[in-house]
Structure formats: structure tokens, C-alpha cells
Amino acid sequence: MRKKKVDNGKYPELTKFEMRIMKIIWDNKKPISVQEVMNTMNEKYAQNYARTTISTYAGHLVNKGYISSYRDGMVFYYEPVIDEKDYLAYINEEYANFWYNGSIADMMSAICKDVKISNEDKKKLVELIEKLK
Description:
The chain has 133 residues and is mostly helical. The chain has helices at residues 16-28, 34-45, 51-64, 84-100, 104-114, 119-132; strands at residues 32-33, 67-72, 75-80. It has a domain at 16-84: Arc Repressor Mutant, subunit A, CATH 1.10.10. It has a three-stranded antiparallel beta sheet. The N and C termini lie far apart (37 Å).
């Protein structure tokens, strides 16, 4: 399925639970069943979510335009409609604009100060900055 981009540059807001479901769907790289989403959610987040809970939230994601669903026999499958990279670019820009008045430098400075960064990641950041010159 071809991934779509939003027309107005805005994505509908996702709840934390919806984001978790989207991450599982994006990571799967192929259509995923309700059961597979539920199993992954329960393993990854040490919860015991019911199939109906996953189905309800997936329905919200369909209504918001993030995923599509189809039925094959008795099994419902989901696949992304919105590309993960497009969503991440959007959400990163929204975050930078809201918290750092659009300053990527301030945002990166805060991240580097607040998060432990490995030597390998430091090297990659330096290489990235060099490429931007």
C-alpha cells in the first residue's frame, strides 16, 4: 500500500496508547493482525491488554487516517497509511517549535545534556554537524 502524506501538514494528535500501537504496526513492515498487535503490546509493555481494547484503539487510528484495516476470514489486519518517517519529521518539528521556539540547536543541546550519549553516538553527531557545514 502506498503511504500517504497529509494535505494540510498536520497529523491528528495521538494518545500514548495509539502511539504504541502505531510503533508496533510500523515496526512490523507488513500487515499485522489484531492478535499480533495485542501479543506485542502485552510483551513489550508488560500489560494484559484485551483484544477488544486493541481493536477499539485501532479503530480510532483508522478514523484518524493513520492505518487501514481489512479482514481475511475471521482475522483483522492493520497496515500503516501514514509513513513513519513523515510522522517523525512532523512530530520532531512540532516538538522543537513548541518547547524550543523552533530552535533545533536548543533542542539538541537539551537532549545532549539530559540523555546519556554513547561515544559512538557522539561521533555520529559530530559527523552530522560536519556535513551541515
